[in-house]
Amino acid sequence: MNIKRVMIVGTMIVAMSFGGTAWGKPALHTLPVAKWSTSDVADTDELLDALNLSQSSDEELYDALYDGKSLRTIAEENGGNINNVINLQVKQLTQQLEARLASGSINQQQYTAQKAELREIVTQSVLTSFG
Q1: What is the pLDDT of residues 3-42, one digit of tens each?
Q2: Tens digit of pLDDT for each residue in 70-112?
Q3: Domain extents in the chain
Q4: What distance in Å separates the CA atoms of residue 8 and residue 25, rounded to the nearest whole number?
Q5: In 3D, which of 80, 60, 57 has the Cα closest to residue 126?
Q6: 73-103 as b/e: b if 16+ CB within 10 A
Q7: 3-state SS string over 75-123?
Q8: Entry pTM
Q9: Residue 103 to residue 100: CA distance in whole angstroms
Q10: How far apart are CA 51 and CA 7, in angstroms?
């Protein structure tokens, strides 16, 4: 299991959940199901780099998240840069939104609304612990 994918999928689910609710519309009506692809995953794990964890630390990261630590706490404990984590997730989710726009699964208005909320949603997700 690649923890980076787990975090990206989790953050994307949060983004999709909140994406249409700002206008009083249910999220199901404004957000079609996302189609996931792992073909864009880089060989190096940028999330582990941003958290200052070694490339073999997928399990360490998974365990820390399972224990309820936030990504911010993990970054602080390891000398990582939480702003890099946020920027990385925003960049990856933006790429996914662009792919969804290009494929026609969302329209320009939905893309604009969801993109405008991305940084705030990702920031809240990264700072939140689940323990």
Answers
A1: 666 666 666 665 555 554 444 444 443 444 444 343 444 5
A2: 999 999 999 999 999 999 999 999 999 999 999 999 999 999 9
A3: 45-131
A4: 24
A5: 80
A6: bbbeebebebebbbebbbebbeebbeebbee
A7: HHHHCCCHHHHHHHHHHHHHHHHHHHHHHCCCCHHHHHHHHHHHHHHHH
A8: 0.63
A9: 5
A10: 13
